[in-house]
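Inputs:
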Amino acid sequence: MQWEVVIGLETHVQLKTRTKIFSGASIAFGMEPNTQADAVSTALPGVLPVLNREAVQCAIRFGLAINAEIGRRSVFSRKNYFYPDLPKGYQISQFELPVVGRGRVAVQVPSTSSGQAYEKVINITRAHLEEDAGKSLHADFHGMTGIDLNRAGTPLLEIVTEPDMRSAAEAVAYARQLHELVQWIDICDGNMQEGSFRCDVNVSVRKLGSDKLGTRREIKNLNSFKFMQQAIEYETRWQIETLEDGGSIHQATVLFNPDTGETRAMRSKEEANDYRYFPDPDLLPLEILDTDIEAVRANMPELPLAMKARFEQEYGLPAHDASSVTASRGMANYFVAAVSALGGTHSKDAAKLIANWVMGAVAAKLNEEGRDITASPVSSQQLAGLLGRILDQTISGKMAKEVFEAMWAGEGTADAIIEQRGLKQVSDIGAIEAIVDGVLAANAGMVAEYRAGKEKAFNGLVGQCMKASRGQANPAQVNDILKQKLAG
Amino acid sequence: MINSSLKQIAAALAAKKISSVELTQGFLDRINRLNPEINAFVTTDAGRSLAQAANADALIARGEVGPLTGIPVAQKDIFCARGWRTTCGSKMLANFTAPYDAHIISQFDAAGAVNLGKTNMDEFAMGSSNETSYFGPVQNPWDRSRVPGGSSGGSAAALAARLAPAATGTDTGGSIRQPASLCGLSGLKPTYGVCSRYGMIAFASSLDQAGPMAKSAEDLALLLNVMAGFDARDSTSLQREKEDYSRRLNQPLTGLRIGLPQEYFAAGLDAGVAEVVMEAINQYRKLGAEIVDISLPNTRLSIPVYYVLAPAEASSNLSRYDGVRYGHRAADYTDLSEMYCKTRAEGFGAEVKRRILVGTYVLSAGYYDAYYLKAQQLRRLIAQDFKQAFSQCDVIMGPAAPGTAFKTGEKTDDPVAMYLEDIYTIAVNLAGLPGMSLPAGFSNGLPVGLQIIGNYFDEARMLNIGHAYQQVTDWHTRMPEGL
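Outputs:
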């Protein structure tokens, strides 16, 4: 039997506002428990919520970035349930009328052993504003539970997709793309360890070709892409095996245990709360005017897709290169700064060379060390300094690799390292002729082989010349001169 | 000074005939003497009150005098006041000391007024007799075996017994106007959004509105001048230019069109009350007003609509009283669920529980559309009735309550009879309109209130209408004997 997995995501994105969504309390992370909890955060009798304008602007920003309809009139509702870290006994969220309506995100799904890379469009159902709850602390309270309300009231944008994804790879690619996008438009710090970006994944399976959705289970609170991949793969296998064994799937909320790599049901939906949503009478409906939207649009950074198209156009970059250097805002900033240091748009060769290096050597080192490009030891300026020496033929591409390694290790600028190590390429014809003559004289055997028709001997002679010059001879010139001399 | 108007008291203070400390002490002495029986105040704090009075005296000495400087005001115990126990009439908050000031409290502080103490009220403002208070029922000073009305029954009794010269109340379905009517006082519920709800403990957020209670319309205007105004901390507070509610007090009433809704004079209205109200309306005719018959056809829906919407909002507003952070917490429990259940079972009284249950029910999946949503639609129809009526008249008049003060305990076992107490007041809250009750006479020795309903933001005109009546009648100066 062939099975198909169907996946939809709900992502909680913590917004980068200065204060909470309904009060002036700070949202700083990692402070002493309850030091960021004001009267509103602790839900004292008589306090009232006041909507944070900045949070709304973040939501509009996101809506514009995914070409979504902005809800001109959206409504805050109360989601009622009791929990000790939910101080009011209800969460203020948006239910029927969200601030962001339907939109779309184009996702690059990377190649795998079983398939090519491809692009897929994921439809966004909606995105709505809501407040976060506090935290229950179960350790060190002698059998009691501690409550920390610092996080209570932190603004979240919950982004909900259609069930459009058909593999763990697609889901992870979407999540990664969304993660980059929210940082690109500067509405979220993207810090997954601190919970700034958390995903709930709805997974169901069905027979391939069926147009009916299977019963879904929701994997809660995934805060790493690696765990997301593992959790979806496990959950998919589990559901298929259950069905193939004649069992059935019940709607449930499940948690992923990274230690065992398994998902386990937390509570079944049947016994879930009736949240008794109703419009919050303390908050008037939120009306967003054209002028509000235009004000946000005026401050939008150039979006990745637009930037990619521009790079193809202005620098003649191949589509793949343009995608790679716009994969994150940090990457794009790095690339743009390097291009501008190397003479801006005038030099298409330079842009291509920079793209090659950013995707190649730089990406490899960053990957190896698990660093983000914003923390690269070789700055975009420094990289431009190095690549400038390739373009003006001071050093060969091969030597540049050596210089780059030294720069990465913190030994200084490209020029300083080239100077210090004596790596300057020799392009003086007289000097190269002298080297070639010496090599020909010392390797009569190889010369004879070449003349007898053994083409391979030529490469050997080139190698000897490069060795004699300690790698500094311009390889193209060595080639030319050697050919002339052998022919002569 | 106990029967003086606020203007007269202010003049005496300004002329240094009496100090604010003396005045405050005088009222505190009356409270000490009479409150043990009347039970109008749940908390007094002579130290704090007298310190405020001393500050006011210093202001007066420097000549920095406003209309309320040095005047003691009784505050309904629904307003958080920093350092004061703030109970909302509930065991749940019996030991809660507010760490911050409600907007209304800071407004009075800024005006130099003295907080005389916190007045008794129905628990979480749910009630029409002040019998649901955890701190016990309040006596009506006109007949101590009867209720003062509610939920602002403590403020009403305090004023009627002349334990305070001015007081605040809140009105969700009639909680200022009905006790004003039953205790022979003037009380005004402003247009929804005129007074900030910040720091006023929520019952039903879309209906709750603070307002002044006093002897006369003239006093109400002075109090409203302090209470009204935009507050950014309440998203439903209206951003309007500050107005002087006293500015129109002395305008003539010639040409005033008074609408009498036929539904307010139908079955259910006590004959004695009807007679007093009609006599008051006659008085207005003499003052130059014209009487117009109008209809508010959806009046009969206002009680069912209110008893869906108000409990729905209340069930959610009262969820925060869970014993986790402040207020009452059960002493013994074995797990979280038991802590919640016991805490709330012990902390809330029967009427509050009844409304939480009703509210939870009408918001539940499967019932929401039939109850909550339907009630919201009807609420718009009720507001539409008033809009229609105000195309024919300037103000609407009728009774504030269907009868006079009833006996303590008389209606406690019959919630529906109790709910009908607010039959003439509730629609005003549903529409968000301003409403006022004025003392208009007596029936069998008990006070009767005349209700005046105005169009949105017409408070200054309504106070003018009230003041004109009080220039030609003396009901508002009457006080119970033997106090």
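Remarks. Chain A has three domains: 3-292, 302-421, 429-487. The two ends of chain A are 72 Å apart (CA to CA).
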